[in-house]
Amino acid sequence: MSDTTETTENDEAKNVAPSLTVDVVIFSLRPRDPLQLPEEPGAEISQELHVLLVRRAKEPFKGCWALPGGRVHPDESLEQSAARQLAEKTSLRAAYLEQLYTFGRLSRDPRGRTVSVVYYALVRSDKQQIAPGPEVAEACWFSVDPVPNPLAFDHSEILNYALWRLRNKVKYANIAFQFLPPTFTLTQLRAVYEAITGRKEDPGNFKRKVEATETIVKTEARVEGGRHRPPSLYRAIVQTDLLHRGPVS
Amino acid sequence: MSDTTETTENDEAKNVAPSLTVDVVIFSLRPRDPLQLPEEPGAEISQELHVLLVRRAKEPFKGCWALPGGRVHPDESLEQSAARQLAEKTSLRAAYLEQLYTFGRLSRDPRGRTVSVVYYALVRSDKQQIAPGPEVAEACWFSVDPVPNPLAFDHSEILNYALWRLRNKVKYANIAFQFLPPTFTLTQLRAVYEAITGRKEDPGNFKRKVEATETIVKTEARVEGGRHRPPSLYRAIVQTDLLHRGPVS
DNA sequence: TCAATAGTGTCTTTGAGACACTATCCG
DNA sequence: CGGATAGTGTCTCAAAGACACTATTGA
Predict the structure, then answer these.
(1) Closest among A80, A51, A47 to A65, alpha carbons compared
(2) CB contact set of A128 (below 8 Å; sequence gap of 6+)
(3) What number is the average pLDDT over the span B166-187?
């Protein structure tokens, strides 16, 4: 923001404003595709981190997979624009939405100068289906291991940065539960950590660590029906469905 | 970036692109102003964190202090734009420049929709003077304790977020030396930490901690002339004068 | 010698991880 | 009972802080 005052008027001509777009990196946990990898012997992780990509219907990069995104409308905030992109491309609601970074390299779009504010979203895929809007030829979930390649524009760089951010943030912030239903067991929460970080956690240590953060609370309910001791259900203390406002930690 | 394809053509009319600007939060360490606070007894901190503000010459917020900033030129990246703002408003070079956040609230500029990509810069003020460009009525360093208030637009919110980010980052990243000359003593480096975090550090523990990061190296030189044991001079291992490119940790 | 700051040694505390152990369900 | 998962106890190790101690200069 701020001053237009220091813009001397004689460069008005070249001052065509860059296009402003919003792209969204949409993450979800989904069952591992058994066709992809022939079930490694030691790996017991059944959920894998996935990202939603759309296939471009026009040039440039026609036919390439890309992050969903589009122009910012004049009557919506950046975050609202990201939420709209999410809603248009899928029928999913974001449990968590955070601004990632703004990409503005000169040559990132061959059509002309474009600056993109990128958000990343965590969604519960549950049993909901992707409902691609009318403009989208195709939308599909891709496992991030390995990262799909190549992508249109600089979207590979963006996706890698989003992955780095998510994997770091899940270690110190309380966001893993955003992939889960409102109530969940500690084993489910631990499985989310393990799927994102790719590292096994000790169940006992994990329980103590996450309880020490005081961000979840045990409910009275338990899961019945297993052939073992029934686990307690927990609930996150912070609200799980509101969009974050402004800069976040 | 990405698609303009999903923009159905009938909303072209309302799709006037938002103005895109870059603002810069310029931090420096400067001697405490003895007139401001009458030298608290216990406080031995002689350096204080300061931020550079410019006084607005036009409406809106005419006469108010604001962060330096302006329109992004079509032929410069966002980071180049931030560096140019810095150069135009001051004669200082940034030792460190990092993207902070992009602010896009609908009502943040009364003149119309404006989205601002905000960077923060660390500069060595040394003996260099601020050389305000021709367009700037006035530029001045303000101590951030307390934060100057009120500022134009949403710049108070931006400044507070930048402060939060800097104070966090200095704890885990190797950036404190960016406020110092190319070679510096550990006592100088510790003084930077203390000025930013507001907390005293034990000299011995601080030495071990920073040496464990292996980001600085002892030089042969020492500081002569004091009436005490001469301290070693250190040098940061990473380059101190290059602008960061792309997303950073 | 003293005053002052540089730099080291070492004890305590704290938190993370390894891992053995007990608890409670189903069949 | 056995198999499976839930949950607890406790040991070890490493990093961070408190703080006493030694080292080296100028005056």
Answers:
(1) A51
(2) A91, A92
(3) 94
Tokens representing A99 are 């601004």
Are B103 and B115 spatial neighbours (Cβ–Cβ below 8 Å)?
Answer: yes
> CA B102 to CA B85: how far, in whole Å?
16
Residue B54 has pLDDT above 80, yes or no: yes
pLDDT of residue B223: 87
- Chain D positions with a protein C-beta closer than 7 Å: 2-10, 16-20, 23-27
Across all strands, nucleotide nearest A212 (CA–C1'): C15
Q: Could you count the other beta carbons within 10 Å of the beta carbon of residue A42?
A: 5
Q: How far is CA A116 from the centre of its chain?
A: 16
CB proximity list for A155: less than 8 A, separation 6 or greater: A23, A66, A67, B1, B2
Q: Are B155 and B66 in contact (CB under 8 A)?
A: yes
Q: Are the Cβ atoms of B247 and A161 closer than 8 angstroms? A: yes
pLDDT digits (tens, 9 = 90+) for B103-128: 999 999 999 999 999 999 999 976 55
**In contact, B61 and B110? CB cutoff 8 Å:** no
* pLDDT tier at B12, thresholds 50, 70, 90: very low
pTM more than 0.85:
yes
Look at residue A109 and tell me whether its pLDDT is greater than 60: yes
- On whether the CB atoms of residues A95 and A83 are closer than 8 A, the answer is no
Helix (H) or strand (E) run with residue A49 in it: strand A47-55
CB within 8 Å: B135 and A5? yes
Beta-carbon contacts of B54 under 8 Å, excluding residues fewer than 6 positions away, are: B65, B66, B67, B68, B89, B132, B136, B137, B138, B139, B140
CA distance A167 to A156: 16
CB neighbours of residue A31 within 10 Å: 10
**B243 vs A: CB within 8 A:** no
